[in-house]
Amino acid sequence: MRFVIGDPLSVVDATLQGDVKARGSKMESFANPVQSATGNQVMIVEDRPMLFGTELRRRRLEAGLSLTDMAKIVHYSKSHLSKMENGVKSPTAEFARRCDAALRCDGQLSQRASRPAAAAAATEQNEANEVWMLTMDSTGETGFGTVSRRTALVGGVFGQVGGMVLGRPPVEPSAKQARDSAGLTGFRVLFDQVRGLGQQVGPEALLPVLVGGTHAVRSLGQHLGGGARKEAFRLAARFAEYTGWIAQEGGHDREAVWWTDRAVEFAAVSGDDGMAAYALVRRALIAMYRQDAAQTIALAETAQRARVRPRIRGLAAQRAAQGYALAGDRTACFRALEQAREFLAADPGDDEPTIGTTHVVDPVAMSAGWVLYDLGSPGDAADVLGVELDRLPRGAYRARARYGARRTLALASSGQIEQACSVGDQVLDAYLRVRSATVRSDLRDLLRTLRRWHSHASAREFSLHLTDALHTPARG
Questions:
Q1: What is the C-alpha to C-alpha distance for residues 23 and 39, in angstroms, rounded to an integer?
Q2: Burial of 12 (0-12, 13-18, 19+ CB in 10 A)
Q3: What is the architecture, at CATH level 2, of domain 366-471?
Q4: What is the pTM of this model?
């Protein structure tokens, strides 16, 4: 244990000698404050590296493995393992999951290694009183934001040069406008084209088009009536949902949530309740990339229980499987993948734009390759991902970057360094085209993994290329 005494400006960190008992209270959280005799607050903090290391050593010895044996299995050095067991180094989530798999601990080591996830900031919106503003500066850089209608009017936003204010359209449509829904066909074609571009270019190029398209279709819907109005808002919801995904790909999680909420609102106007459930799947994805297993599972399983079309429930089950993989629960993970396959097979399909991936031939198989890495089986993950990557269209650079980065990481983590470096250059080419923030997280993990192989010539050379790619400015 460690304890910290004093105020935030004067902190003393010392080793606790003996037991510290908080009067009648149980230490149920990561940090638990108690009062000292001097009136200062004492913060009891779990020494997670020591707790993890002690359990790791116990499990290793029970399995009859020496440090040398364990190092060969998990592809970490004997010195690294020793430091982990003695609490000198803090375990990463990836290291804990690898040990879980090697010692068949069913996620127990991962639980000891994990820290409580920070709660996502809540965003309150009042769409009825806000104005959307798309801006462009003299260098061509674009930005998007919202301001209150009152601020826009008082501050003169409507007159700013270089900014396009996307306000609410007039609420009184003319008879001609109410009858004319022909424009929807063009916007549907535009949406399909933009999704195709999403596989080839970065968020900086896509977001202005998507923001403008979402606003245009929403505005058109305001001028229509009956079934055409519902069709317009259904399409506006798809535009907004995809805008949220591209915002996340650009590293803007808060904006991603905002756009997803707009998609739910537009879908509700059209009578489509499925988008609300899919919004939970999207939020679960954000939680997954934050390594928050519990939140990922909770959001995904809530969506899976909704009375919506099978495809959305199948995508929710896939996300739940990824959450269970983060938690190290192999049984629950593969049970969720089986549920996903059943749901996706049962979906009848329709003429609407497809929710979720359109380029992955077998989403469940690709997800299986993904979760095998998180479950501590990188060699198996690389094999499965390799098969599914070969089935992707050649021009699907975003999908190739995403799953290719994960496969390269799996290869490196399983000690297949030459092959990892061999396929890595293609992954970097795809990444530089699409500039995905989510792919970047795996590439950073890959760089850390390769540094453990600093004596390997190919690892050193590819690490230089990887470092350059991660620091190359985005192409606007």
A1: 15
A2: exposed
A3: Alpha Horseshoe (1.25)
A4: 0.71
